[in-house]
Amino acid sequence: MQDAFGIPQSLLVLGGSSEIALAIARRLVAHRTRTVLLAGRPSPRLDAAAAELRGLGADARTVAFDAEDTDSHEELLGKLFADGDIDMVLLAFGVLGDPEHDEERPQSAVRVARTNYTGALSAGLVCGQALRRQGHGTLAVLSSFAAVRARRGNFVYGSSKAGLDAFAQGLGDALYGTGARVMVVRPGFVRTRMTSGLTEAPLATDPDTVAAAVEHGLRRRRETVWVPGGLRLVAAALRLLPRPLFRRLTL
Amino acid sequence: MTLVRPRSYAETAAAVRDRGPRGVIARGLGRAYGDAAQNAGGHVLDMTGLNRVRSVDTEHGEAVCDAGVSLHRLMEVLLPLGWFVPVTPGTRQVTVGGAVCADIHGKNHHAEGGFARHVRSLDLLTADGEVRTVTPGTDLFDATTGGMGLTGVVLGATLRLLPVETSLMTVDTERATDLDDLMARLTAGDHRYRYSVAWIDLLARGSATGRAVLTRGDHAPLDALPARSRRDPLAFRPGTLPPAPRFLPDGLLRRGTVGLFNELWYRRAPRSRTGELQRLSAFFHPLDGVPDWNRIYGRSGFVQYQFVVGHERADALRRVVGMLARRRCPSFLAVLKRFGPADPGWLSFPMAGWTLALDIPAGLPGLGRFLDELDEVVAEAGGRVYLAKDARLRPETLAAMYPRLGDFRALRAQLDPDGVFASDLARRLGL
Ligand SMILES: Cc1cc2nc3c(=O)[nH]c(=O)nc-3n(C[C@H](O)[C@H](O)[C@H](O)COP(=O)(O)OP(=O)(O)OC[C@H]3O[C@@H](n4cnc5c(N)ncnc54)[C@H](O)[C@@H]3O)c2cc1C
Ligand SMILES: NC(=O)c1ccc[n+]([C@@H]2O[C@H](COP(=O)([O-])OP(=O)(O)OC[C@H]3O[C@@H](n4cnc5c(N)ncnc54)[C@H](OP(=O)(O)O)[C@@H]3O)[C@@H](O)[C@H]2O)c1
């Protein structure tokens, strides 16, 4: 169960090797999260993440999960929920793709969509159902500031996150009143391996900052979390910007 | 969560039989602060439909009633007959079932123990569908009293009552200048009063830490009343105040305002006054007079924290009070009281010693971790936290606080092997 401050006792991470997810898991374990399931593509990185959380006192294990293999989601995730209540699901998987070349390579652009949108839609619906049945729990979705308005520079990624974001909001409304809830998290530029080598955007943050914001969002039962918080205003301004101006923005 | 409202023993049994896969839990008036009467995804039985006072034996002072009867209703029925409920908490809006299953305590615990001590017998619907008559001195009784509804559904109870001559209280009030002064006064004088409690100011720092207003008293005898009140000495007139405004800004509960409130409360109290006549409701249930009082905490609400440590561990109490004062928690109306000997219930909260109860706005940053630190001080001192007010304890701390937890779990495993009874509290703490 989540306690009075929204901290879960059990956590399922989809995309278990994500740096942001690991920072969140670490922070929750330091409070009282005991069971952590790290679902992801098997890799040394995934194992290392589980080992680190075990070192912090959690009962952490890994589960093989591929976001793109949507046919497997129902059975695989269903089994995890059958083992006991899961208080929080963190949907963290995602790929940035290659903004420079995806435009010219439809095949690789489709992968971005298949992971960030289709994969999330499938896994999100399965988890949403399970949370509804158990009558409690939070599905936290790592969307992105990029979902606000697809930008010239990375509209393949941006549009996939926009789809994910719209889906997550809709799911949140569908679950309203069932005891289960969805929290949409929109970080700006976060320094992780996903963004390594890219030029930092203004208001860049670290995974630990995202983790702190997620904890705060859980405590206040937020539906939306911006990281850093000031991005909410930037987003509002960006939405109003006329197309000709927006087009020329190099963000 | 599916809410069912049975109106009879038979309907209750049917509702338990027809529970869903996530089990069922009984609920009284939902006054437990935490998740004790909640069952996410499962069934909850609203017991307030079982609301009959079946009989009152005015000679021996016993009442037989359904579990859904509120203490408010009991008072309405009993007072004109010259009897009173044996234990009343800080609100009349609790049911007999809730009072039994949390083994609630009142201002008279030091003298008369918790609610369960005044129960002669219970009708308990257990997981197998049987209705058992459960009496004190049995394992099932001790597991049920304080057992937070997890042994079954209490359908009815026979209670021993307290005789009273009037519906008024005689109250002595005094001020204590700091925590040591307060503890000395409570220790020296409590045995002279049936009811005793102290409000303590946790925001006052330095030498004033723990300054307090003590109110102690008893039911007024007939001859204490002025002549004009003697004609109708047992009239029960609770009265209500206007509700708290709906849109109080979150910021209202800043230290400044709470500090000012506490200051006024302390200053307003007489340095010492004896024999004042007060209404029952003013003495026992000041908050019941303010509908929706919890609104003052704004959107994020608040958490209650109540713990007890043994008399010999007054150092732990001092430490916690120091931590709260240093932290400057904007809490008003923290309440300190001395408990008498522990009640026999396995998960019953009271034990001989000092208990402190306070509200803290839930939005306070870092509060979760801070309360964990308090838990550690309390557990190390052999004390415990009150489950009826908990929504955040760690399961591993619980075992240290409730030494009979193992027995409780074993009895549950035997009595309810399929987990018919389940609550969010039980899931969170692995009860
Ligand atoms: C303003 C305020 C002041 C308070 N002051 C005090 C105080 O001074 N002392 C004190 O001890 N407590 C105090 N409390 C807490 C309160 O007395 C307890 O939580 C009490 O259990 C609430 O009774 P209820 O009928 O509302 O039960 P609920 O809150 O509905 O349920 C409490 C527990 O009892 C179980 N339960 C209820 N009915 C049944 C039944 N028929 N069969 C089986 N299980 C049942 C529930 O499953 C749950 O575990 C206070 C609460 C408030 C809001
Ligand atoms: N970093 C940022 O600036 C930023 C900003 C806003 C939003 N986000 C979002 O935050 C999330 C986490 O990103 P991060 O910064 O922590 O980067 P990261 O460490 O690269 O994490 C991405 C994760 O997605 C997983 N993943 C990718 N494809 C998968 C698939 N098909 N199946 C299962 N898992 C798959 C990766 O697993 P492998 O280890 O197997 O590759 C990795 O664990 C992403 O959704 C990202 O879009 C990031």
Automatic annotation (TrEMBL), chain A:
Domain of life: Bacteria
PROSITE patterns named in the record: ADH_SHORT
GO molecular function: oxidoreductase activity
EC number(s) reported in the record: 1.1.1.333
Keyword field: Oxidoreductase
InterPro entries: NAD(P)-bd_dom_sf, Sc_DH/Rdtase_CS, SDR_fam
Entry's family note: Belongs to the short-chain dehydrogenases/reductases (SDR) family.
Protein name stated in the entry: Decaprenylphospho-beta-D-erythro-pentofuranosid-2-ulose 2-reductase
Organism: Streptomyces lycii
Automatic annotation (TrEMBL), chain B:
Domain FAD-binding PCMH-type residues, every copy: 1-164
Name of the protein described by the UniProt record: FAD-binding oxidoreductase
Record key words, sorted: FAD, Flavoprotein, Oxidoreductase
InterPro entries registered for this protein in UniProt: ALO_C (IPR007173), FAD-bd_PCMH (IPR016166), FAD-bd_PCMH-like_sf (IPR036318), FAD-bd_PCMH_sub2 (IPR016169), FAD-linked_Oxase-like_C (IPR016164), FAD_lactone_oxidase-like (IPR010031), Oxid_FAD_bind_N (IPR006094), Vanillyl_alc_oxidase_C-sub2 (IPR016171)
Sections of the chain in a coiled coil: none
Pfam family, one: FAD_binding_4
